[in-house]
Amino acid sequence: LLFPVSNLCGKCRPRDTDLLQPSLNFLYCSLHQTTPCSQQRAVAVLLSSVSLLELLQKVLECTWLWSPPSEPAYLSSEDALLCSGWLLIASLLLYQHRYNTEVHQTLSLDLTEVLNAVTFRKKKPILLLVSIMQFLRAVLRQNFSSSLLVIIGQNTAQGATQPQPSSLQDAALHPLAMRQVFSLVVSLQNLLVHKDLLLSQAVVACLETLVEYLYVKNQDIALHVASQPWHRFLLFTLLSGGQKSFLQPEVLRLMTLFLRYQSSNIISQKEISQIIQEAAEANLAELPEATSRALHLFLCQV
């Protein structure tokens, strides 16, 4: 079925949402719900379809071309198609790297446009933001070096006008720039304040991957980003309101992140003691799975 469905997608236009939406979802599910042996063959089939990859290129570019709906929470058919496109590309990036599959057609994306889609998220539904962040995690994990993807649009002219220290930092983080890193971090923090479960999981995962990427590129920059004072304000914000417990998955994962990168100005011995005390008093068998996993990682990090 992968052959006819991928060929059918290649004959469509991005506006053919009624046909493309279930087709891309089928391809996505085929990649994720199969045995490893079949998964490798499925990746090879999809990456050999030049027309499918050309179609996906056009679909992704519609993210910053299509006008958003009047209601930001409303998932239109166009937005649903964009979600499917970003999730499928993120999966193809992951599995192409895992199996070192031959690539017959590369995709090119403007990194500035991708980051702006998250940073300036005007009227974008949550599911679309989550899908784009899945893509960002995939490219960050691969150090922007996938043979399937070509990153374009670095603003080298602006970098040349910056002071020398900034230029050195930008060179270390290439293709990202320091201003893009800080802009993305602030945007992720703002998204966390919404306290939406699906969004929170995606944001924290993206933040974790971003700091890991920075740490590989330049440890000083990674530690600088992880120790920014506004992270502590973010924790206070997340702990405000009805549920003050530290045993929230996104709070635990953030705490683990700050512990990992030794951000003692963000998380103190007092907070660590409070979390351990809450865990000791909780009925661990009744904790949600996401909370249990996050608590396990936190305690291992401690």
TrEMBL record:
BP GO annotations: meiosis I
Residues in coiled coil: none
InterPro entries, per the entry: Immune_Signaling-Apoptosis_Reg
PANTHER family reported for this sequence: BCL2 INTERACTING MEDIATOR OF CELL DEATH (PTHR12044), MEIOTIC DOUBLE-STRANDED BREAK FORMATION PROTEIN 1 (PTHR12044:SF14)
Protein known as: MEI1 protein
Native source organism of the sequence: Burhinus bistriatus
